Amino acid sequence: MRPSGRDLSEMRPISIETGITKHAEGSCMIRIGDTHVLCTASIETRVPPFIKGSGLGWVTAEYGMLPRSTSSRMRREAATGRQGGRTVEIQRLIGRALRAGVDRSALGERQITIDCDVIQADGGTRCAAITGGWVALRLAVNRLMAAGEILSDPLLDPVAAVSCGIYAGQPVLDLDYPEDSEAGVDGNFIMTGSGRLIEVQMSAEGTLFSRDQMDQMLDLATKGVGELAAAQQAAVQ
């Protein structure tokens, strides 16, 4: 029934390769099916003005898609002179999601910026960015701890995200682009590795959905995030 031939509850293949870039304190390439995102974490000894002097750290994110990450070339946003609304919304989402898993007091007064660059898009880029962004963040924090710059681990729990939707009348896990473009309902579930919810984005794209269908999608998302969290932990060992 699914274009890929997957079962309704089956994730696309997941791979996370760390140490991709030379200079970033943490980096990985996350591949979820044909969606590939490069994630880097950069540590800075500064924080935004609104928390300066508070002793709290900050985690923020930037997101972008390369011109040929999709089937036809798109213009670089830098060439237009401004970021699009979708880009701004997604990078704010990534920052919010990752901060939810951080003890900002333990992080200390420093900022970690997660850069997520979509190399190839086939659905679920924001979910892959959040999942890979946590791996890059974990590696950067490991470096701070190894150097003795922070004394206790500020990362409370892995953070990962997965999409679910209603495709051909059935709840399905981890939509690729052919499914995403045709789904009657589209949702993104951001959760911790222990299964606690951080944020849920759900919308009826072409058909309404019931409470029972939403519960089914939540069950699928919990399964998917469990698999992603296992891949994250294996990548940072």
How is the topology of this model organized?
Layout: E1 14-18, E2 26-32, E3 35-44, E4 58-65, H1 77-80, H2 85-99, H3 104-107, E5 111-120, H4 125-146, E6 159-167, E7 170-173, H5 177-180, E8 185-192, E9 197-204, H6 211-236
Parallel strand pairs: 4-5
Antiparallel strand pairs: 1-2, 2-3, 3-5, 6-7, 6-8, 8-9
Helix pairs in contact: 2-4, 4-6
Shape: globular
Q: Enumerate the strands of the largest sheet in spatial order, edge to edge or round the barrel.
A: 1-2-3-5-4
CATH fold node name: Ribosomal Protein S5, domain 2
Which parts are unreliable, with pLDDT below 50 for 5 consecutive residues or more? none
Strand percentage, roughly?
Answer: 25-35%
Organism: Pontibaca methylaminivorans
GO molecular function: 3'-5'-RNA exonuclease activity; tRNA binding; tRNA nucleotidyltransferase activity
Binding site for phosphate: 86, 124-126
EC number: 2.7.7.56
Summarize the structure.
With 237 residues, the protein is of the alpha+beta class. Helix content is 32%, strand content 29%. It has one domain: GHMP Kinase, N-terminal domain (Ribosomal Protein S5, domain 2).
